[in-house]
Design brief:
With 160 residues, the protein is of the alpha+beta class. It has four helices and six strands. A hairpin with a 4-residue loop joins β5 and β6.
Length: 160
């Protein structure tokens, strides 16, 4: 029931070049994604089905201990805040759109999953990378590593 788009490798590479040249981000899309991709690949529908079949359960488990998936969940206050944010994601789980970007990092295939509210207007999410500052739990990202079927690096926007 989640609306989303698989971003072709060629499109991701184009985003990378546009971001690198136009926004002063010397490492291109890697600066936006927070990871140093060696290359891009195009995930299949089957790859996305695997990710989506596991994602909700992983988020439900992460509510109990955000430090398992969120690198900055170190203090009791940050863990409590992140648990609340993840709970909100789960409450609104069906209200998101997604972009799926295939990355290769250290020789391993990953899928970068970019989530944002389905009500979000503006640029077409099928052709432009959606990036928003602030917005809290309505804007979040997670990485799935195919080789070992693990989720990595959940990040949730802050709130102004």
């Amino acid at each position: 029931g989640i609306e989303g788009t698989i971003i072709p490798a060629k499109t991701a590479m184009g985003w990378h070049e546009n971001i690198r040249q136009g926004r002063g981000a010397p490492h291109g899309i890697q600066d936006m994604l927070g990871t140093n991709a060696e290359s891009f690949w195009t995930p299949t529908q089957k790859d996305i089905a695997v990710v989506e079949s596991r994602l909700r359960t992983v988020l439900e488990e992460t509510v109990k201990d955000p430090s398992t998936l969120v690198s900055n969940a170190k203090t009791p206050d940050s863990k409590k805040y992140l648990s609340e944010q993840i709970s909100n994601i789960l409450k609104h789980y069906g209200e998101y759109r997604r972009q799926y970007v295939g990355l290769v990092v250290n020789g391993r295939r990953r899928i970068y999953l970019n989530s944002f509210p389905s009500r979000e207007k503006g640029a077409s999410y099928t052709t432009q990378f959606v990036t928003v500052f602030d917005g809290g739990f309505w804007f979040w990202r997670v990485v799935y590593q195919l080789d070992d079927a693990t989720f990595l690096d959940l990040s949730i926007n802050g709130e102004a």
